[in-house]
Amino acid sequence: MNNSVPTYEMLLEDLKTRVQQARTRAALAVNKELIVLYWEIGKRILEAQQTKGWGAKVVQQLALDLKTAFPDMKGFSRTNLLYMRAFALVYPNVEFVQQVAGQLPWFHNCVILDKCKTPELRQTYIKAAFENGWSRSILEHQIETAWHQRTGQAITNFSKTLPEPLSDLAQNLLKDPYNFDFLGLHDKALEREIEHGLLEHLKKFLLELGAGFAFFGNQYHLEVGGQDFYIDLLFYHVRLHCYVVIELKAREFTPEDAGKLGFYLSAVDGELRTEGDNPTIGLLLCKTKNKLVAEYALKNMNLPLGVSEYQLIEQLPKELETALPSIEELETRLGRLEDNE
């Protein structure tokens, strides 16, 4: 294993992230008018059904007539018109549509409509998807694995060991628990099996870690005082400008784990950290933890550490219930109404 990643690799990772975000923002600027148009169509359908009692058949007819009138435009299917109706129903304020929901591409909004239960949850994922430049598939994955319930939930001592606002940024960097169900491993898997699986599925692992992580090495060798030490996983975070040491424990967390991880942080700071780097942070990924034991173990540590659990088997719901009916349910309900057109 090459023990050093050239500065070029870190620069490339950072630039790739920035380019993707810029492309996403450019697409959103072009797409915003289309989002408002879809909202206006949905609003008119809602008003017509509420004032005239029109049912499902009018949506089907509108789909046919709009496609005939604008054959070069996509997006006028019956299903998409129902999404427009649902969109206008949950976002009655056009300013919100322009300033918030309009930041995302249309089908991102459709995913959020389908999978998010409350207005607060919808706004959370709109903001997160925009800020992180998530693709639609990544957005679906984050919702299905309850990203909002896990982000920022690791037990850490960052508020005492890192200056603001770095401490808040670092806290929001870590999750609890981490979901490694993509490994397909049994709950009794050994540490080396988990590490090997994470490296084999590095792209999915980086997605679960979050934006900004650049992989530096596994079983990373450090020589300290003539002795050899090996870090399970070493990363560099291009936004926080710091190294991140991750140690895996296929058992319950113990206070001794924090001491060993603290040593690795000191060694990385002494051997690898350069001018411009922020203090190295550490994360212990354990099978289980006692929250109070973890809090006490980190309380008087003077190095920035966090403790989180990992899950090898999916324990979170695959889909979050939505306050709105699904498109299929909307179609069924609207189909029961009489079309008075």
Describe the structure.
- It is a single chain.
- The protein is α/β, with parallel strands linked by helices.
- It contains 15 helices and 7 strands.
- The chain has 2 domains: 7-146 and 323-335, no CATH class; 149-311, Trna Endonuclease, Chain: A, domain 1.
- Strands 1, 2, 3, 4, 5, 6 and 7 form a 7-stranded mixed beta sheet that branches.
- Helix 1 (7-52) packs across helix 3 and helix 5 (106-115) runs parallel beside helix 7.
- The radius of gyration is 24 Å and the shape is elongated.
- The relative contact order is 0.14.
Mean pLDDT: 86
Approximate helicity band: 40-55%
Cα-to-Cα separation, first versus last residue: 71 Å
The CATH class name of the largest domain reads Alpha Beta
The value of Rg in angstroms is: 24 Å
Topology, number of strands: 7
**Element order, helices and strands?**
HHHHHHHHEHHEHHEEEHEHEH
What percentage of the residues does DSSP assign to strands (E)?
A: 15-25%
CATH architecture call of the largest domain: 3-Layer(aba) Sandwich
Envelope shape: elongated
Structural class: alpha/beta
Total domain modules = 2
Here the CATH topology of the largest domain equals Trna Endonuclease, Chain: A, domain 1
User: Which quaternary structure do these chains form?
Assistant: single chain
- Give the low-pLDDT segments: 315-324, 337-341
